Amino acid sequence: MKKKRNFCPHCGGRITKEEEDHVARDCCSSCHSFFYDNPLPVVSAIVDDNRQILLVKRDRPPSKGRWCLPTGFAEAGESIEEAVLRELREETGIKGKISRLLDVDSYKSRFYGDLLFLTFIVEKRTGKPVAGDDSAQARFFPINKIPALAFRSNRRALDRYIKIKKDYWAVVDALDAQDGKKASARSTGSPMTQRVMNVIMRNREKMIQQWIEDITTNPSTPEYHVYENKVLYKICEKVISQITLWLGQAFSIDRIRTFYTRLGAERKKSGVTISGVLSGLSLIRKHIWGVALAEGALQKNLDLYMTFELQRRMTIFFDLATFHMTRGYEGNSNIEREKSTPPEKPHGSRRRRVGKEGVKNP
Q1: In what order do the strands lie in the sheet with 95-109?
Q2: 178 has pLDDT over 60
Q3: How far apart, in whole angstroms, are the C-alpha atoms of residue 200 and residue 266?
Q4: Tell me, what CATH number does 78's domain have?
Q5: Which of 50, 76, 103, 187 makes a 20 to 30 Å CA pair with 27?
């Protein structure tokens, strides 16, 4: 239980409550010093090793004997990033590298008072799980067998992590299924295509973050400058998952047509211009290729045919997406025009109509 402050550490005077800035704070009755109880920063790490999450069993209160993410307080004089890597190393023996900040949550503890949980995704670099001073055990749990966690903020962050990784894992499972069926050399058997697919999957977070930074500042996409990052994240995440499946021949032309026709109609309803929509899509392609090149996925000594084949499939995907998104965007006005104008006798083929229903942001 968090102890109450009774005496001033400066002069020994008795602590009372006084109002400052409309907040009742601890104040010394003698020297009139105010004391500010700000939330304590707590860091947690999500370390994922092939869909297994690193957890530690607590060896002291609160929640002794329960499992949690590697978690601890940040110390004075260290950055929050240094704190999460230090706690990970001290509690589990694992050395890691931060990938990104995943979640921030406020929590009121009866032991420590107000806490601010910051959870990071951390890539494992070296070491094997070994229990540290504050933990009784440290081990990896399969993602579908996670025990009840000691802290609500840990559960919230892990749920969010699983949600954002869902599409990525679906891509991996689809490719594994292709391999199990002994797919032909036209699909995932191409070393060039497989290499780029691996680069895309491994660097998906980097691509998404670069795209968000670009689309929210690029003069060609002004409508997206006011979008929330979480909405933009879902849009880019969906397209990158689709292009990865397409390269592995697990995403068909029919699915591209259906998805992007509906998406175009939805973007029209939301008030985004067609130029902004298409520019946003082209920026995704730009950052996929940019990261692939930076990672060395495209080597000069690779077979020239494989390079052309990869370029061909990428071009087909984005050309199809652009075409059907434009058709879907135009479809709304065509439907409205058909409703207000008496039907004419057909001359040649009729224009296809887009369904009324919209779609959620991908």
Answers
A1: 71-73, 40-47, 113-126, 95-109
A2: no
A3: 27
A4: 3.90.79.10
A5: 76
